[in-house]
Amino acid sequence: MRSERNNKVFGTRGHWTPSGSILIVLILLLAIPIRAGAVRIKDIANVEGVRENSLIGYGLVIGLNGTGDKTGTTFTVQTLSSMLKKMGIAVEPSAVKVKNVAAVMVTAKLPPFVKGGSRIDVVVSSLGDATSLQGGTLLLTPLKGPDQQVYAVAQGPISIGGFIGGKDGDSVQKNHPTAGRVAEGAMVEKEVGFAFMNKEQFNILLRQQDFTTALRVSQAINTQLGLESVATAVDSGTVRLQVPDLYKGRLVELLASIEGLEVAVDLPAKVVVNERTGTIVMGDQVRISDVAVSHGNLTIRVKTEFQVSQPPSFAPEGSQTVIVPQQQTEVKEEDAKILVLKGGTTIGEVVRGLNAIGVTPRDLIAILQAIKAAGALQAELEIL
């Protein structure tokens, strides 16, 4: 058994230092005034109903150089046979070879307010056992929404951003060759109905729910429009905006006038820990109560040496060479160092203090868990 200390997380001057295969990332927001963290409303919220819609379709990719689905892929054979039959070519499914054809799922995002005739990108992903879509062309594929209505049709050459090559057991692969994109490969055929200009009110939905932030958004809107109670914080994630009479029929102008307003975002104090990777992320609101931290490492090293014992000259017949293992155990315990953290300590002071006693990423995770268990960490500790 061997337990060794890793390299220090921080250098003597606070610079980052790698620790073996473990990487620790600390995002420190130190002594930042609250207005310095202000962001635009459009970056933290969405207007209810103004969103993308997902589309999906099933299609075929042709023109592959022997990297398509295998003959045993039944659905590819049936699809190709049915397509040829619709074109007036009768062929038995058993006679179809599909090594140059691959069955794929085609997905796309339909932006809000997109009009018929517009083009959008699509993602093509292999559905069978094809080894690569390199050089393939997507055949005309209808893209449907959850209501089973066709909103776009896709077709075009595929770009996979990689390749696979080689033979006779030697191969080289770059990126993921069984998925790719068709840039502007889908033509929008149908719009998503949304009565935008007739709305009397809007719900502004915060992406990160917080009561303080919702209240600040409503106050910023009321101040900008010069009206009272036109915007109301309904809950921690919703701000209801009544359309003023001045902006009737000018909803685009109304939303444009408020989406650029800057609001200070308030977030709860949280420490996120990923023990598998040794990653720790902390916000600037994290505080520590009065607590003393003692840190020390115990290293146990077991060393085994094999000594060979050979029989002497003129030994009796049947004597054998014997291998005798010799084990040496060494135990070394470092002197524990005690660090006292006063109440109200910021995350920057915590890092500097832990840097002074020299901790590894996993040591820091253990210390944070112990501080939380002691009730001194005034933040939510989330372990991934």
Topology (SSEs and partners):
Blueprint: E1 38-40, H1 41-44, E2 45-47, E3 53-62, H2 74-86, E4 102-110, E5 119-126, E6 137-144, E7 150-157, E8 163-167, E9 170-174, E10 179-188, E11 201-206, H3 211-225, E12 231-233, E13 238-242, H4 251-259, E14 262-264, E15 270-274, E16 279-282, E17 287-288, E18 291-295, E19 298-309, E20 322-333, E21 337-341, H5 347-357, H6 361-373, E22 377-378, E23 380-383
Parallel strand pairs: 15-23
Antiparallel strand pairs: 1-14, 2-11, 3-4, 3-6, 4-5, 5-10, 6-7, 7-10, 8-9, 11-13, 12-13, 15-16, 17-22, 18-21, 19-20
Can you put this structure into words, describing what you see?
- The chain is α+β, with helices and mostly antiparallel strands and about 375 residues long.
- It folds into three domains: about 35-50 and about 195-265, Dipeptide-binding Protein, domain 1 (Alpha-Beta Complex); about 55-165 and about 175-190, no CATH class; about 270-315 and about 320-384, no CATH class.
- About 15% of the residues lie in helices and about 35% in strands.
- The protein has six helices and 23 strands.
- It has helices at about 40-45, 75-85, 210-225, 250-260, 345-355, 360-375; strands spanning about 40, 45, 55-60, 100-110, 120-125, 135-145, 150-155, 165, 170-175, 180-190, 200-205, 230-235, 240, 260-265, 270-275, 280, 285-290, 290-295, 300-310, 320-335, 335-340, 375-380, 380-384.
- The chain has a six-stranded antiparallel β-barrel with strand order 3-4-5-10-7-6. Strands 2-11-13-12 form a four-stranded antiparallel beta sheet.
- The radius of gyration is 32 Å and the shape is flat.
- The two termini are about 30 Å apart.
